[in-house]
Design goal:
This protein is α+β, with helices and mostly antiparallel strands. It contains 11 helices and 11 strands. The radius of gyration is 21 Å and the shape is globular.
Length: 327
């Protein structure tokens, strides 16, 4: 165990020094200064190094993709702090390049921040509806009647049955949307390669591995050594991904979008290159998204640096996908 910890720490230190050396390159420093500005450069660099240090999977990504994703977030004046949840740099196995790259992923709190900055929104809200709270939802008139559980602790423990999002402009225009949790699960199962509602099998270079259903995962009925198979955000933070989906559905269809918000939506789920080009990896049509694949833990018979990567079976992009399906 001590040898394994020592090896992991050595690899982490090597990656940190490699990233530091990359950030010290003149071309990279000029790129950072052009976006961030000289006096904010140290703060920006510190935030990148901190984000990488706390995420072992991110340490395996190319330095250029990490910096480009962070620069995009900086240009939108969003924080990479996981605690704030405005955007994330997410590891993605780009098999066509044989490398792991950092994707830019906008969080639902990032949507809220960018929408509020436009000055057009008087109200903007997204909420999980708990069992027993929904009285009715009229999609024609976009009217919802709920009786919220008053006790916050009881409400937190109650199962979620759906999601509600709404906005109201300063001029009084209002839109609202409600999805049942069943609809959200079907959406995630269809558009995320890393998520499955039911039991499924993924192929790895060590053979096939079985993933439990999402219901079993929520109940904790899975082997803890298989945790790596459930690292998609749809598993780790289903509500957060559901909030993001609701806001994107609502704002992209009916909301006023600032240039910043349009840029963020266009870049969401993309690997950003040094020249500003965006690569949606193997997503297919740009409104069909996939979240990142996962990395299988070290095989006990192999050194850490030779660990193999596991991926879910390739799914062909759906034809004629409705343009209103976003992540």
């Amino acid at each position: 165990m001590a040898v394994g910890n020592s090896l992991a720490k050595r690899n982490q230190n090597q990656q940190a020094s490699g990233l530091t050396a990359y950030l010290a390159k003149d071309a990279v420093r000029n790129q950072i200064n052009s976006v961030v500005g000289g006096k904010n450069g140290p703060r920006f660099i510190s935030s990148i190094v901190s984000a990488v240090q706390v995420n072992p999977a991110l340490q395996e990504c190319t330095n250029s993709s990490i910096v480009s994703a962070a620069l995009l977030g900086e240009s939108l004046n969003l924080s990479p702090s996981p605690q704030l949840g405005q955007y994330y740099m997410v590891p993605y196995d780009n098999r066509s390049k044989g490398a792991k790259e950092a994707q830019f992923q906008l969080g639902y709190k990032g949507y809220i921040q960018l929408a509020i900055r436009s000055g057009q929104y008087k109200k903007l809200n997204v909420l999980a509806i708990k069992e027993g709270e929904l009285v009715r939802f009229d999609p024609l008139n976009e009217e919802i009647e709920v009786r919220l559980i008053e006790d916050e602790e009881l409400r937190e423990e109650a199962p979620t049955v759906g999601y509600y999002a709404m906005f109201e402009y300063t001029n009084g225009f209002r839109k609202a949307l409600y999805w049942s949790k069943r609809k959200m699960l079907a959406h995630a199962d269809k558009f995320s390669k890393a998520f499955s509602v039911g039991e499924t099998t993924i192929k790895t270079r060590y053979g096939e591995k079985k993933k439990v259903s999402f219901a079993d995962y929520e109940a904790g009925n899975y082997a803890k050594e298989d945790e790596w198979m459930y690292s998609s955000f749809w598993y780790k933070d289903f509500d957060g991904m559901a909030y993001k989906t609701m806001l994107r559905q609502l704002i992209s269809k009916w909301g006023i979008m600032s240039i910043e918000l349009q840029s963020a939506i266009n870049a969401d789920m993309a690997v950003v290159h040094e020249d500003g080009a965006m690569d949606y990896v193997d997503n297919g049509p740009e409104d069909v998204y996939t979240d990142y694949t996962v990395t299988e833990p070290n095989n006990s018979d192999q050194p850490a640096e030779e660990a193999e990567q596991a991926t879910k079976e390739d799914a062909a992009p759906a034809d004629n996908v409705e343009a209103d399906f976003f992540n």
